[in-house]
# Entry
Amino acid sequence: MTVSSRSRAAPGGVIETDVSARLDRLPWGRFHTLVVLALGITWVLDGLEVTLAGALAGALKASPTLQFSNAEIGLATSSYLAGAVLGAVGFGWLTDRQLDAVARSRGLVGLNFATAFLREDGHMDADTPLDTMRRHLDAMLEHLGEGGVALGSDFDGATIPAAIGSSAGLPRLFEHLSQAGYGDALLERIAWRNWMDVLRRTFREEAAAGAQ
# Structure
């Protein structure tokens, strides 16, 4: 994947990154293992649900109140399983589609500072390099553009990179981004201007709607 921006590279230049074009194609990590385990548990529960439904099929058909047909029993036992399969298929597109939807609504997404969400292995480890955050920003910028990305932060109760530590360490993040090719105009947008633009636009739209 390549990310290009006049604010972060010389005119006509291209910044190359190893961040996947789709966030779900990152190298295998603890997060993916947990997803597989969760889906496995879901499949086990699906099997139990189908087994129970099969055991009760005779009673459902014989019930003077329910009077299920064979087709209705089959549909009832398959609908939950079908939902799980469709959910698993759609999972891979969810994150990127969410970002695209935010971009279409001219919204804003803040960068998460919690290392459990930043790291490929999902560990809450303060020894997380700032370049991990830069890679996330690159991926967000590709979907949202320079007007749709800002700082989200999770300073309260979350494990954040030790290089930042607290809000007092934010200049170190911006210094790292500057060294990685982010221009002053883009850094200003990420730091505060994008938040202000979204808030002003939202308040103006609400005021206009109220006046009507």
